[in-house]
Structure formats: C-alpha cells, structure tokens
From TrEMBL:
Lineage, top ranks: Bacteria, Pseudomonadati, Pseudomonadota, Alphaproteobacteria, Rhodospirillales
Protein name: Rhodanese-like domain-containing protein
InterPro entries: Rhodanese-like_dom, Rhodanese-like_dom_sf, STR4-like
A family per Pfam: Rhodanese
Organism this protein belongs to: Kiloniella laminariae
SUPFAM superfamilies: Rhodanese/Cell cycle control phosphatase
Residue ranges of every copy of the Rhodanese domain listed in the record: 20-120
Top-level taxon: Bacteria
Length: 140
C-alpha cells in the first residue's frame, strides 16, 4: 500500500463505486455547519444516503472522540469500502488513517473533497471537487 489507508480516489471514481458496490458507503466528515449551509452529496440515485459524521467537532475543531466507534456501528464488515469526504480532501485523510488503524481495510480519501480548492477569487466549489464536477448534491 505504501500509506496508512487504501488510497485516494477522484470524486467521479467514488461516485461510480458507490453506485456499483451495494455495500460501499460515503461518510462526509465535515462539520455540522458545513452540512447545513454548504450542502451534502445526494446519493438517492444510487439508492443510498450519505452518512454525516464529523471528524472534528465545531467550533473547537477537536477530533471527535466517538468517530471510530460510530463507524464500527455503521459498517457491516472490516472489508466494506468506506469513502471519506471533507471540504477539500484533508480531514478525510486523517479519518481514513484512523479507521485503517482500527482495522478497516478499504478506507478511501476522496481527493478534492466536496468543494475543492479555492478559485482565484478565493471561493470554493467552482473549480474542483464533488460540486464542481456536477455530481448530485443538495442543500438543506
């Protein structure tokens, strides 16, 4: 492997895998304000729901002490494919590493995350990531 988790995948690779593998899950590790105000992936076309579980807890941004335990309750096996998404693909790496250390074998970081990097004006969501790639998403 060469790293502490299964690897990085593009948003389109993750979307395809979520549609094709009935056991694969998507865990959005952003904060509650991000879920509420920025939006979340819409997996209804794949017959699934996104699992919103913060890796870091807003506003102090400490690591969620219950994160691994919550995934252990959610997952059906240690071999299940778990795709992890954050704003830009940084927090989701940390979550993938922690889950792999806990015994999960197929934890994937979704590169560029939900919003991707900032554009030249400093705004996210326009040049890369889940939203900019035209994948389904919704705002609450």
């Amino acid at each position: 492997m060469g790293q502490d988790y299964a690897g990085d995948v593009s948003v389109t690779t993750a979307w395809k895998a979520l549609q094709e593998d009935q056991n694969a899950i998507l865990v959005d590790v952003r904060t509650i304000p991000e879920f509420q105000f920025v939006g979340v992936p819409d997996l209804s076309a794949a017959g699934k729901q996104v699992h919103c579980l913060s890796w870091q807890v807003y506003p102090q941004m400490q690591v969620n002490p219950n994160f691994v335990e919550a995934i252990q309750e959610l997952a059906t096996s240690e071999d299940q494919a778990i795709y992890l998404l954050c704003r830009s693909g940084v927090r989701s790496v940390s979550a993938a590493v922690a889950l792999t250390a806990a015994g999960f074998k197929n934890c994937y970081n979704i590169e560029q995350g939900f919003e991707g990097p900032p554009d030249p004006s400093g705004h996210r969501g326009a040049i890369a990531g889940w939203k900019a790639s035209g994948l389904p998403w919704k705002q609450n």
